[in-house]
Each structure stands twice: as structure tokens, then as C-alpha cells.
Automatic annotation (TrEMBL), chain A:
The keyword Plastid does not apply. It catalyses: sarcosine + O2 + H2O = formaldehyde + glycine + H2O2; sarcosine + (6S)-5,6,7,8-tetrahydrofolate + O2 = (6R)-5,10-methylene-5,6,7,8-tetrahydrofolate + glycine + H2O2. One of its GO terms (cellular component) is cytoplasm. Its EC number is 1.5.3.24. Its main location: cytoplasm. Its cofactor is FMN; FAD. It is found in: Cytoplasm. InterPro entries: FAD-dep_OxRdtase, FAD/NAD-bd_sf, Rhodanese-like_dom, SoxB. It comes from Silicimonas algicola. GO terms for molecular function: nucleotide binding; sarcosine oxidase activity. This is Sarcosine oxidase subunit beta. Keywords: Cytoplasm, FAD, Flavoprotein, FMN, Nucleotide-binding, Oxidoreductase. It is an enzyme of class 1 (oxidoreductase). Belongs to the SoxB family.
UniProtKB/TrEMBL annotation, chain B:
Residues 616-884 form the GCVT N-terminal domain. NCBIfam families: soxA. It comes from Silicimonas algicola. Residues 904-988 form the Aminomethyltransferase C-terminal domain. Keywords: Oxidoreductase. This is Heterotetrameric sarcosine oxidase alpha subunit.
Length: 417, 996
């Protein structure tokens, strides 16, 4: 692996960039691995990286049906924050943010973790109550999050309209300064490069068609478009398609898959300093380093595996942005796309052993798993390596849906009166 | 008229000059010009600067695919937009335009130092550096990178324009009004089929506008076009220009944006700026045409280097010569015709440089006739000129060897790398593509949608072929819809057809490592960058695109995708289909936010639902709060009162005499049918069988997980009819949930569900004087405690109106809820108000309602519960029909964790120092512990209570029901508050006031 630095960049610039080498090779599958990870998103690649680096397990393959990082990892709006309500979530996401802060150095790949602050807007009394609850809980958990008045919100994010006559006026906001964004592709690529350097095979364009089990029920390996690959352990991290893959091992998961859409505007000079989320009007926005406004919406209304997404939702999302930031009304949308997200009943993830020996699953990240990438990958690797969960992901079992011990972040933000 | 305008050419209006400015300097163009054509007519090629290297750029195209000539456009205050394509924006009197991404001026731009350091800014350079020292990232590097972002500047003012949106249903939608689209529309417009023809241009005609030499059935192209438009209109075809089909969605739904005012000098008073059309078409014909590819060589971005076809457009459509001394550089026959057109219009064509070894004889002869110098079998290796091209360096290529270069002076280089079909909308449908080796391009194959492709978008060439293909497709589509299809085969004379070859970078004798041969102009992606990406292991075209940003500019890869693919495939040593094409995403061209938002702005962002009594509340000084889409009266301050004082007054008045409250927003669902009672038994936790008609009951609804979802009082009017009420915010959700169960789980039940929320106005009277006030107005019911006790309901007449009357209470006082048909709500309110004067009736809002119900220990779902609270946790175990065989949530609430010890349970809290707690504050048992603290619950509701004489609160506390009298602690940022756990009911625990 070529070490990246300003020096190596300069040196290579002088030689016409001819001497850079592959960041990861295009591996062909071997007959057998200690661990096969299904899904080369940030989570799957990261898990392989930590398996190799922290647990010394290097006979690992990450297999993807497409190109690595082409799933939700490469489609998301990259909001990173950790001001979740419940202790279990706060611990997991804060663990992630800790890892984010050093990830560029860790991977020797600039993932551009940008601590630009995430501001969540409150538009009604219920929002205010709910955000204050989060802030109090975060404070006692040692997680940064504070309340801003509408005027303070405006000062923090000048394009914001705090007009009292707005349809849903801003009543304040919760700000996590440590939160921000990162460069999504770089996360996948950085983990891929780091994992490959430690001996992990990354196998692309190779759909896993089934998980095969031994006569005793334990996992035997995976059937793929390029034949059967034996594996002592299999970890599935296939986001919106996880339930489909797991079904082949006769493991049913409480997941529903929905299209989630996002869009960018044409690029403009810096105008938007932070990230703003507004759950009440359903819009999320930040500005990329290229200058595009990056805007996310809520999930489509129906379950689907089609990544196209519908027009009405986009109309609603853009209307919401133009409502909260009226100066953007004459900006133009450049491009929109969708991804398929896997949603659990309590909107919290599953990082867990399964009833099948040797089979592990990391899923249910729904609309918000990018921020968890390092933390989830790290604890998933631990779970696979040790055949038991890390204390941080121990509560995020599959079992909880049977016992009722939910981590209900959705409920924490539910609206009713 | 300036020297670049050619008399007798173009469709611009020579009689109408139009003044506009560019970077403050006045210019004159003609009506019908775009900014680009008008500036070119004035000899201006330099229109912008590129993104990364700030290189000087001029227009390379003449249409919406333009990557370079992006400008700011302004029409007075509030009307500014960045990144407008100069090639699309029509000029109008007074238009102000500005160049972008430059400082201090377009000609002298400091940012151009990046260009000198270009070797450092290779593809993906930022992933490799800016990491040390770590602390520098946040403070130095990141701000530096972010400051370099963007092209134009964002608008800063609110947009004064309006936007509209419409639906359109048609039989056939034809996208693209070039010859193929025109013919398709004509052939499909038979037997009354409703046909719509759209084009993004200001007028229809497509390529005929750029190349008018063809004779269609003996008629000159533009005469034929004019006649054809008339014929289409006569056939009832709806022609929509300046309308872009931006996206192709599921089930033949096409989004289209019509631009109505951006080309007008005077804004009509009542016209929206843009209109979003949502079209549902039975069949779609995609006739989007083809896009010309640039050639990739060192210096191919110098202003004055332009697509040959675009030069033809400027000449034939706008009457503008883009250069007096152009050189043609091509690998395709089509550019030869550009040479001929320009030569015939008076340009001194310096040379035709063709990369191919041999060229058709007729072209050679035509060139010879015009005395044009020919350089067959040549490559181009450089351009010269900083702000405008001054020469092209060309070299002979023999047997793959590049010979010595020499320079041809020129003022424009017109290039053609061949053509590629416009597959964007087809790609939106998730249509599959097939690689055509001869054309070196992808062609459309299969699509899940009901659409066909016609003309140049499927690789056809020449007006005759395209016209007849369009007609065939139109006929086929009509036949598919039961029409007979028109007979419209055409014959075309002076048609131009041609072929060509495709290149990666043009061969060169210079150091390719130093070449600035651009593929994506706007993003400054060079061929070298693409090869570097491949060298670094990017094998999929998606990786290459993301690593280099090729194809991610505002032209959405229209100029760069195919060239980028060819180069990446070459670098990988693979065939193009193995590398794949990136997916084109909507919108086809950048589309204003306003067009998407449409009417949904300001007050219309979402409907504001108002009750029939809202007007009275407004007239009487109410302060409102938004609750979902509703606005509800929050409190009714008297002059000088703040919210607290008003609420305290309203509370006292209600407890002492009578308060009146608008409860119309409560969700209402009529559950009717022979199986209604069974349905209710299954949906709600409570048993309903024994509830007699004329009685009501507090109903509790759980999800299948066993957690509380909603609640409300439900009256049984007759054996088969229930009047269900829900929370205000839950109305739609509950109805959906009911329908879901009814239709999917219990289709056997004979039950109808109807939302009646807006059919009834609901007025609540609460207080000791409520019955006295109401009784005289009620006919047919005796309102005594004996005849109409708490939890009764009846259909009767109130103040002469048909009504449903409930005796229920959400305050702990005697209460009635009167439902009358919504239109009569306000009348009833006023009658009650008048009748109540003698009792000092007081109108109260939602805040008082909250206080009164909290004093009485009634929960609000969504505030005191959050989706993790079971009936038992909320102290509502009594509302669960344990002996019922099944109901939604029964199994869920039996799960181990929902029945275990130590769950958070709803209790009352009284602070020891009589301070009021903050809602959402967290509760701990041990206030001295270090962070992170073990939290055992939180405050759900908290109010000052005059009835209790101190603040009260409700809270969820771990094991709360078993901790009565214990002290808990609420750590706040500045201090920790101690509070005692109490029962939830603070007022009238024995229900003496309710008389039960
Ligand atoms: C539009 C959008 C916006 C979002 N915004 C945010 C945000 O702002 N913040 C945030 O934190 N999160 C966000 N998310 C969520 C976030 O993107 C995901 O939770 C996260 O990236 C998931 O990473 P992953 O590695 O698990 O999944 P992915 O990156 O989707 O990786 C899963 C991989 O599995 C592969 N796969 C699937 N089936 C098979 C098979 N049978 N065989 C082989 N391979 C298979 C897929 O090809 C894919 O590459 C957003 C998501 C979307 C779609």
C-alpha cells in the first residue's frame, strides 16, 4: 500500500502521477475463508478491516453484488451525529463519533470528517418537548447537545428563515457541535484499501444468492454467482437487501425496505455553514465541499426494492427546504437518486448473532446508518471474531423484538397530541 | 449589426434589437437570441471560468448540454439565479448577466494559479493529503477546501415569483420535437387520441432549426416545419415549448417543467414563473435526439473551441458566425457539413482536419468546390490562445505514428467526435442499454415502462430515416391504443447522412502526462485523471466517476460520459459494456426548487386546518399553536395578560363555573356494521360487547407491539354503530391502522370505516355549571346525573341543531361534548357563549386543557407516552380486556420485557422546593453519581396548578408505581431538584365532582 501524504502527492506529481498503485486489487474468490462478509458497503468493509486489524483474522472476503460502496454508503447525505435519546444508542453513536474523529489518520485516507455542527429545528410544542428531553438525556450521558433560541439558530445558520409568519415557524433548535458530515466514498474506499492491505479479498460484481447451512444447522458458506464459497463464519451487512439474503438461511428479520431519496442542487459558493435537520417538515440539508446543497427527504410511503423513488416526495422535500430557507427557491436541483433502506420496528439497528451458528447480521440502519459506520463495523467485527457481542452492541440484538426490550428511537420522536 | 451576424440567416428577429448587460457592459442582441448567441454575435467567446483550475471558458455547445458558459442572471430585486446556461437563456430587454467563479475579473482571475499547480490537483488528491497535523484539518485545510467550493453565488433574497403545478393525462406523450418527435406526434394524432408534444426549446423543430437545407417532400425544411405545426394543431396535438421533461417515473408518469416568464421583458402580473406538469401518459415516445461529443486533446477547452454542430446552430438558427477563420477538427462526416455551411455564409474555413485515413468522395468534392484545405489522417495536439483560440497545432498520423506538428492560425476550432443518443429519460426508467460497436455508443434496449424510442435517440441518422422512424413509432403506438395510425412516409432530398469513428484521446507527440485534454469541462476532469483513477484501482465506471467527478457537473455528463467511458475502458483494456455506463438521474436539466415546491410555499406550504370556531377564537384574541396541520387556540389572553396568567385564569374559571373549549380537531371515525362490535373488540384493548347503546367508554389502542398508540372516548350509539374519537394528531394514523387490519387481517368482518373528523364540530363544556348552562338548550334528553350520567351519549337536538351529545370529561369537572354538523359549529358556540354569560363562561385553549387534565391525571398520548409505554405502565391496566380472546397488542404486551419488573411507569411528581420542572428533564435516583448518569425516567408533563396550589408534574419513573412517597432527583445544568413521587391524580381522586 502506498502511504498517502502531502509528500507522496508532491513526489508523484513530479513524476506525472505514473507511479500510484491500486488502492485495492480486484480479487477472485478463493474456495474457502474464515469469514465471508456479504455486502461491501462501509459497514461490511469496515468490519473486514477491523477483523484483520484488531482480531488478526485476515482470511476474509467481502463480497458485493455490485461495486464496493455502491449501496447506501455511496448514496447517503452523510449526516453524522450522536445526540440520540437512549443510553444504548448514545453509547453506540458516540463510539462511532470517537472513531470518526481519528478515521482519516487511522486509514491514511482523508474521509473529510467535518465537524460543522448539526442543528435540529423545532417547529411545534411537541418538538420542543422532545428536543429538550434529548438535550437533558444527552447532558447526563456526557453527549454534546444544546438548545438554541430561534435567533441563535439564525446566527448559527444565516440562510434560515425564523419568520414568525412561516407556516411552521422555528421555535428553537438542538445543536450538536461535534456532529457533522464526511465524504461517503472515501469511507468505503479507505476501509477497502486498509482491509485489502491486510489481506482481505474484496470481490465485486458477485451476488450472493444463498447462504448454505451444514447438516447440523451451522453455516457452511455462501452460494454466489461465481460458485460456492465455503466459510466458517458469515456476516451479512447488506442494508436494504439484508432480509432477502437472510431468508435463504431461514432467518426472518423484522425489516421493511423502503426507498429513501436525496438530491443535490447546482454548486454555489459557500452559503451554508452547518447541517440542518427538520423532522417536522421533513428536510435535511448541508453544503458539500463542491458547493452543492445536499438535501435528504423522508422515506417513500411504500415498501419497495426499486431505487427510483417517486416525484411527490421530492416535491414535498424541496418545498420544505424552500420554506425553511426561502432564499434557495431559485436555486436549481441538479440530480436526485434513491437508496433502499432497511427499517426495524424500533428504528434501531441489529448487530447480532443469529439462531444459525456462525451467521451474524448487521442491519436495520434505515435512514441513519452512515454515521454509525465505524462504530457498527468495529463492534460487528468483535461480535464475529469472539462469537459474542461487544458491550456496546449487546443491546442491539435480534432477540429484543421477541422480548420487547426495544431501543425505540422512533417512539422518542413520535408525534401525537 | 455586428460583423458576426450573417444577413439572411437565422430565425432571430432582425428588426427587434434587445439590450442586455454582461458583467455590467451593455450589449445588443436580437429577439430570439440566447445570451450565448448574442455575445458570440458581438465577438465574445469568453463567458466563464472552470471549477477547479479557473480556466477561461467559452460556450462549447448551443443548447442545454452546455457545461462552460454558465452565468448569473438577474431581473431586479429578488430575481437572481446562478449557473444559468447562457446557451439556453433567451435575452430580453434589460436582462443583467454576470460571469462566475472569477476574482477580480473574468479576464484576470487569481484562482487561475490553481491551473499552474495542476499537477498537484490530480484526481482524488484530497483523499491523500490534508491529514497532518490532525488539528489542522478542522481549522486550516477544511475551511480552505470549503472556501473553494461552488461556481455561482446563491441568491440572497426571497423569491417574489410564484410557481404552479398541474396534472395532465394523455394517450401519447412525445418528448422532443425534432423531426422524429414531430412525425411521431403526427402519426399518433388519429382517432381522437390525445397527443402531447413537448420540447425544451423556445420553438419546435429540433435539428431542423440547425440544419435547414433538407427538402421534405419537396418543401424547404422550415416551410415544411411551419406547415407541420399547423397540421399538428389542427389534429389536436398539444404542443408545449420551453417545457423540459425532467424525469421519467413509475407507471409512465413524466415530470415536466414549463418555463413561462424567464424569456419575457415584461412580467405578466398573474403568470407563474414555472409550472410543473405531472403527466400520466398511456404511451411515451422518447425522441430526444443525439448529442455531439467533443474531441479530447490538449487545449480543447480554449474559448473558441466548440462543437461543430453547435456552430451550425449558431449560424442557421441565430444567424451568427462563431468565427471568421474557423478550423474544423473531426472524426465524423457531420462536421464537414458545418464547414460547408460556415464557408457558404462567408467564413474563411482554414482547414478541415479529419482524424480518419479516408473520407467519402462527395465530401472531398464539396470541400474542393469551396477551396477548403484538407488535412486527412491528422490529429490535433494543442491549441494556443489564452482568452480565445488563436491557432491549432495539427500533426499527420501515419500507421499510428504521429508526425511533426505544425500550426494553423484560426479564431475558432469546430470539433466533432461523433454523436451519442440522448438516453437520459430512458435511463430513468431503468431501461437496459446495448452497446453498439459500430456507432461506439450505447443504444436503448428494454424498459419496464410503456415507451418507445424514435429517431436519433436510437442511433438513426439523417432527416429521412428519422422522420420515417418517428412516423412508424407514432403509428405503432396509436395502433397499440386502438387507433389506425396516419400514413406519413416522407421523402427527403438534400439529406445529410454520415458516419464516423470514435476516439479516446487524440494521438499526440507531446508528453501525454502534461496534456490538459478535458473530458468534463466544468469539473476540469482530464483524460489523465481518468487514467490515474484506473491506475489506482477504480474499475467500475461509477468508481471512476466518483473518484474524478467526471460526469457530475451541471450538464449531468451530457458532454463527458461517453468520452469518459471510452477512455476508462481503454485504460482498463476492457470493452465499454464491461465497464458500464453511469445511471443518468433526474432531472434532465437542472430545475428550480420553486418548480418542485409549486404552490406549497408560505401559508400554502401545507394546508392550515382550521375548525369552524377558529374565526371566533381569532376575533377574541386567541393565541394559536400548530398541532399537526391544525392550528388550535392555545390560550385566550385578556389585554395585558401573558400566557401564564391567562392559563391560570382559564383554569380557575373552568373549575369554578364553566369553561368552553373547541374540541373539533379530535379525530372522529364512524365504525358501522353488523360486526362493528367485534371489530372494536379486536382493535382496542377494552371489551366492547357489554357496552350498552347510549353509553361511552375510554378506549385504548395499542400497536401490535403492545405499546399505547392512541386513545379517546368512544360512544356506542346503536348496537352496530360506534362514534370513535382519536387524538388530534392520531386521526389519520388510526384510520389507516384500522383499514389496514380490516382489509388485510380481517376481511371477513362486515364493517365500514368513515372519517368524520371534519363532519362534526365538537364543543366541550366543562365545570360545575355545565349542565345548568346546557340543559335548557337540549331537547329530548334530561341532563340530570341520574338520567344522563357520566359516560352517556345520545343523538338529540341542541339549540335546534341535530347533535350527538356526550357526557364526558377531560378535566375532572362535569363535562359535555356537543357534536353538531360542522357548518353549524360557530352558531352553536355563539349560542352557548350567550347562554353562558350568566355563569361567567370562559373560553379556554389547549394549554388550559393540558393543565386541567394533568391535575386529574389524564394522560396525553404522545406526551406522557412515547411508543414505549404499555397500558400497565400508564396505570391503564383496567382498560385492557384480559379475558378477550385477542386484540391488537395482546401478544406483544405479554412479551417478557413488557411484563418485567423495573419498567418505567407513569406517576405524579411534586417538587420539594415548589419549583416547576422542565418537561423532558431526566430523573435519577442518585444525584451524586458521575457522568454518564444512570437515568431512571423523565418528566413528561409539568404545569403550575392553582387547584393544587403548587406546580405538578407527570413522569415516567423506573418502577414508579411501587415507589410512592420516594424522592427522586432531577439534575439540571445549574442545580439538582428533588421531587416526591405521588399518584398521578392531583385533583378529586374520588371523582366526587364527576358525580360517579
Ligand atoms: C438517500 C439516503 C440518505 C441517507 N442519509 C443518511 C445520513 O445523512 N446519515 C446517516 O447516518 N445515514 C444516512 N443514510 C443511511 C446510510 O446510508 C446507511 O444506513 C448506511 O450507509 C448503510 O451502510 P451499509 O454498509 O450497511 O449498506 P450499503 O452501503 O447499502 O451496503 C450494502 C451492500 O450490500 C450489497 N448487497 C446487497 N445484497 C447483496 C447480495 N445478495 N450479495 C452481495 N452483495 C449484496 C449491496 O450491493 C451494497 O453494496 C441514508 C441513506 C440513503 C439511501
Amino acid at each position: 500500500m502506498t502511504h498517502f501524504s502531502a509528500f507522496s502527492l508532491l513526489k508523484n506529481a513530479l513524476t506525472g502521477h505514473k507511479n500510484w498503485t491500486e488502492q485495492w486489487p480486484d480479487s477472485q474468490p478463493k474456495a474457502e475463508y474464515d469469514v465471508v462478509i456479504v455486502g461491501a458497503g462501509g459497514h461490511g468493509l469496515g468490519a473486514a478491516y477491523y477483523l484483520a486489524k484488531e482480531h488478526g483474522i485476515t482470511n476474509v472476503a467481502v463480497i458485493d453484488k455490485g461495486w464496493l460502496g455502491g449501496g447506501n454508503t455511496g448514496r447517503n447525505t452523510t449526516i453524522i451525529r450522536s445526540n440520540y435519546l437512549y443510553d444504548e444508542s448514545a453509547r453506540l453513536y458516540d463510539h462511532s463519533v470517537d472513531l470518526w474523529e481519528n478515521l482519516s489518520q487511522e486509514l491514511n485516507y482523508n474521509v473529510m470528517y467535518s465537524r460543522r455542527g448539526v442543528l435540529m429545528l423545532a417547529h411545534n410544542v411537541h418538538d420542543v418537548q422532545s428536543f429538550k428531553r434529548h438535550i437533558h438525556s444527552n447532558r447526563l450521558n456526557g453527549v454534546d447537545n444544546r438548545w438554541l433560541t430561534p435567533e441563535e439558530c439564525k446566527a448559527y445558520c444565516p440562510p434560515l428563515s425564523i419568520s414568525k409568519s412561516a407556516r411552521y415557524p422555528v421555535m428553537g433548535g438542538a445543536l450538536q457541535e461535534r456532529a457533522g458530515t464526511a465524504r461517503h466514498d472515501a469511507v468505503a474506499w479507505g476501509y477497502a484499501r486498509g482491509a485489502a492491505a491486510r489481506g482481505v479479498d474484496i470481490i465485486q460484481n458477485c451476488p450472493v444468492t444463498a447462504i448454505r447451512r451444514n447438516a447440523d444447522g451451522s453455516v457452511a458458506g455462501v452460494e454466489t454467482a461465481r460458485g460456492f464459497i465455503r466459510a466458517k463464519k458469515v456476516g451479512v451487512s447488506a442494508a436494504g437487501h439484508t432480509s432477502v439474503v437472510m431468508q435463504t438461511a431461514e432467518v426472518r428479520l423484522p425489516l421493511e425496505s423502503y426507498p429513501l431519496q436525496a438530491l443535490v442542487s447546482e454548486p454555489v459558493k459557500p452559503v451554508f455553514p452547518c447541517v440542518v435537520m427538520s423532522n417536522a417538515v421533513h428536510a435535511y440539508i448541508s453544503q458539500s465541499d463542491k458547493g452543492e446543497l445536499v438535501i435528504g427527504s423522508g422515506t417513500d410511503q411504500y415498501t419497495s426494492y426499486s431505487q427510483r423513488g417517486g416525484l411527490p416526495l421530492i416535491e414535498h422535500t424541496v418545498a420544505a427546504i424552500a420554506e425553511v430557507f426561502p432564499i434557495f427557491n431559485r436555486m436549481r436541483m441538479l440530480r436526485k437518486w434513491g437508496g433502499i433502506v432497511d427499517v426495524t420496528p424500533d428504528r434501531s439497528a441489529i448487530i447480532s448473532k443469529t439462531p444459525v451458528e456462525g451467521l451474524y447480521v448487521n442491519c436495520g440502519w434505515g435512514t441513519g446508518g452512515f454515521k454509525a459506520t465505524p462504530g457498527a463495523a468495529h463492534t460487528f467485527a468483535w461480535t464475529i471474531a469472539k462469537d459474542e457481542p461487544h458491550p456496546i452492541n449487546a443491546p442491539f440484538t435480534m432477540e429484543r423484538f421477541r422480548t420487547g426490550r426495544l431501543i425505540d428511537e422512533a417512539a422518542a420522536a413520535a408525534v401525537a397530541h | 449589426m455586428s460583423g458576426n451576424r450573417v444577413a439572411g440567416k437565422g430565425r432571430v428577429d432582425v428588426g427587434k434589437s434587445v439590450r442586455f448587460t454582461f458583467d455590467g457592459k451593455p450589449f445588443v442582441g436580437l429577439k430570439g437570441d440566447t445570451v450565448s448567441s448574442a455575445l458570440l454575435a458581438n465577438g465574445v467567446h469568453l463567458m466563464g471560468r472552470s471549477f477547479k483550475y479557473h480556466r477561461p471558458r467559452g460556450p462549447v455547445a448551443a443548447g442545454s448540454e452546455e457545461p462552460n458558459a454558465l452565468i448569473g442572471t438577474r431581473r431586479g430585486p429578488g430575481r437572481f439565479e446562478p449557473n444559468t446556461r447562457a446557451t439556453v437563456q433567451e435575452i430580453w430587454q434589460g436582462l443583467e448577466t454576470t460571469s462566475q467563479n472569477k476574482y477580480p475579473s473574468l479576464k484576470w482571475d487569481i484562482g487561475a494559479v490553481n491551473d499552474a499547480a495542476y499537477m498537484l490537483f490530480s484526481a482524488g488528491f484530497y483523499y491523500k493529503t490534508f491529514m497532518w497535523p490532525k488539528s489542522f484539518w478542522h481549522r486550516v485545510y477544511e475551511p480552505f477546501i470549503r472556501a473553494a467550493a461552488g461556481l455561482g453565488v446563491s441568491p440572497t433574497e426571497e423569491d417574489p415569483d410564484t410557481y404552479a403545478s398541474r396534472f395532465l393525462h394523455c394517450d401519447v406523450l412525445v418528448v422532443g420535437a425534432g423531426p422524429a418527435g414531430l412525425a411521431a406526434a403526427r402519426a399518433a394524432a388519429v382517432d381522437g387520441l390525445k397527443v402531447v408534444l413537448v420540447d425544451e426549446n423556445a420553438e419546435v423543430g429540433g435539428s431542423l432549426l440547425s440544419e435547414p437545407q433538407a427538402l421534405v417532400d419537396g418543401q424547404r425544411a422550415w416551410d415544411w416545419l411551419a406547415a407541420e405545426v399547423e397540421a399538428l394543431k389542427a389534429a389536436g396535438v398539444r404542443i408545449m415549448t420551453r417545457t423540459t421533461a425532467i424525469g421519467y417515473y413509475h407507471q409512465n408518469m413524466i415530470g415536466m417543467v414549463e418555463r413561462l416568464t424567464d424569456h419575457l421583458s415584461d412580467l405578466p402580473a398573474d403568470t407563474p414563473r414555472e409550472r410543473m406538469w405531472r403527466v400520466r401518459a398511456k404511451r411515451v415516445v422518447l425522441a430526444q435526439g443525439a448529442l455531439e461529443k467533443p474531441l479530447v486533446f490538449h487545449g480543447n477547452d480554449c474559448p473558441g473551441v466548440m462543437l461543430a454542430g453547435s456552430a451550425q446552430t449558431y449560424l442557421n438558427r441565430y444567424g451568427v458566425l462563431v468565427g471568421q477563420r474557423p478550423v474544423i477538427l473531426t472524426s465524423h462526416d457531420s462536421a464537414w457539413f458545418a464547414a460547408f455551411d460556415l464557408a457558404d455564409a462567408g467564413a474563411q474555413v482554414q482547414a478541415i482536419v479529419d482524424t480518419r485515413e479516408s473520407v467519402r468522395d462527395d465530401l472531398l468534392a464539396e470541400a474542393g468546390k469551396r477551396g477548403i484545405r484538407l488535412k486527412i489522417g491528422h490529429t490535433a495536439t494543442a491549441t494556443k490562445g489564452r482568452l480565445r483560440v488563436t491557432s491549432l497545432r495539427v500533426n499527420p498520423v501515419t500507421d499510428g505514428k504521429v508526425g511533426a506538428g505544425y500550426v494553423i492560425g484560426c479564431d475558432a476550432v469546430l470539433m466533432s467526435g461523433g454523436w451519442t443518443p440522448s438516453l437520459h429519460l430512458f435511463s430513468h426508467t431503468r431501461g437496459s442499454l446495448a452497446w453498439d460497436e459500430d456507432l461506439t455508443t450505447f443504444l436503448p434496449k428494454d424498459t419496464p415502462e410503456n415507451c418507445v424510442i424514435a429517431g436519433a435517440s436510437r442511433g438513426l441518422w439523417g432527416v429521412e430515416a428519422v422522420l420515417n422512424d418517428g412516423a412508424d413509432k407514432g403509428r405503432a403506438v396509436a395502433a397499440d391504443l386502438g387507433g389506425t395510425g396516419g400514413e406519413t412516409a416522407c421523402s427527403v432530398a438534400s439529406d445529410r447522412t454520415g458516419t464516423g469513428v470514435s476516439h479516446t484521446e487524440l494521438p499526440t507527440d507531446l508528453n501525454p502526462g502534461k496534456a490538459k485534454a478535458f473530458v468534463d469541462y466544468q469539473n476540469d476532469v482530464t483524460a489523465k485523471d481518468l487514467r490515474l483513477a484506473v491506475r489506482e484501482g477504480m474499475r467500475s465506471i461509477e468508481h471512476v466517476k466518483r473518484y474524478t467527478t467526471n460526469g457530475m457537473a451541471t450538464d449531468q455528463g451530457k458532454m463527458s460520459n461517453i468520452n469518459g467511458l471510452n477512455i476508462a475502458a481503454d485504460a482498463l483494456g476492457k470493452k465499454q459494456p464491461q465497464v458500464g455506463l453511469t445511471t443518468f438521474r433526474p432531472p434532465y436539466t437542472p430545475t428550480s426548487f420553486g418548480a418542485f415546491a409549486g404552490y406549497h410555499r408560505g401559508a400554502h406550504f401545507e394546508v392550515t386546518r382550521k375548525t369552524r370556531i377558529d374565526g371566533w377564537a381569532e376575533e377574541n384574541g386567541a393565541v394559536f399553536e400548530p398541532v399537526g396541520q391544525w392550528r388550535r387556540a392555545w390560550h385566550f389572553p385578556k389585554p395585558g395578560e401573558d400566557m401564564d396568567t391567562a392559563v391560570r385564569r382559564e383554569c380557575v374559571a373552568t373549575r369554578q363555573s364553566v369553561g368552553i373549549f373547541d374540541a373539533s380537531t379530535l379525530g372522529k371515525i364512524e365504525v358501522v356494521g353488523p360486526d362493528a362490535v367485534e371489530f372494536m373488540n379486536r382493535m382496542y384493548t377494552n371489551p366492547w360487547t357489554k357496552l350498552a347503546p347510549g353509553r361511552c367508554r375510554y378506549g385504548l389502542l395499542c400497536g401490535d407491539d403492545g405499546f399505547i398508540r392512541d386513545d379517546g372516548v368512544i360512544g356506542r350509539l346503536t348496537t352496530d354503530r360506534f362514534h370513535v374519537t382519536t387524538t388530534t394528531g392520531g386521526a389519520a394514523r388510526v384510520l389507516n391502522m384500522m383499514e389496514d387490519y380490516l382489509q388485510t387481517e380481517w376481511p371477513d368482518l362486515n364493517v365500514w370505516l368513515t372519517s368524520t373528523t371534519e363532519q362534526w364540530a365538537t364543543i366541550a363544556l366543562n365545570g360545575p355549571k355545565a349542565a345548568a348552562l346546557l340543559a335548557p338548550l337540549v331537547e329530548g334528553v334530561d341532563l340530570t346525573d341520574e338520567a344522563f350520567p357520566h359516560m352517556s351519549c345520545v343523538e338529540c337536538t341542541v339549540a335546534g341543531m341535530p347533535a350527538r351529545l356526550f357526557r364526558v370529561s377531560f378535566t375532572g369537572e362535569i363535562g359535555f361534548e356537543v357534536n353538531v354538523p360542522a357548518p353549524r359549529g360557530r352558531t352553536l358556540w355563539e349560542v352557548l357563549w350567550e347562554a353562558g354569560r350568566q355563569y361567567d363562561i370562559c373560553a379556554y385553549g389547549t394549554e388550559t386543557m393540558h393543565v386541567l387534565r394533568a391535575e386529574k391525571g389524564y394522560i396525553i398520548v404522545g406526551q406522557d407516552t412515547d411508543g414505549t409505554v404499555t397500558p400497565k405502565d400508564a396505570g391503564l391496566d383496567w382498560a385492557v380486556g384480559k379475558s378477550k380472546p385477542d386484540f391488537v397488542g395482546k401478544r406483544g404486551m405479554a412479551r417478557p420485557d413488557l411484563t418485567s419488573e423495573g419498567r418505567k411507569q407513569l406517576v405524579g411528581l411534586l417538587t420539594e422546593d415548589h419549583s416547576r420542572l422542565e418537561e423532558g428533564a431526566q430523573i435519577v435516583f442518585d444525584p451524586t453519581q458521575a457522568l454518564p448518569m444512570t437515568m431512571v425516567g423523565h418528566v413528561t408533563s409539568s404545569y403550575h396548578s392553582d387547584a393544587v396550589g403548587r406546580p405538578i408534574a407527570l413522569a415516567l419513573v423506573e418502577g414508579g408505581h411501587g415507589r410512592m412517597g420516594e424522592t427522586v432527583h432531577i439534575p439540571m445544568p445549574d442545580r439538582t431538584i428533588a421531587a416526591k413521587i405521588t399518584p398521578m391524580v392531583f385533583v378529586d381522586p374520588d371523582n366526587a365532582r364527576l358525580k360517579i
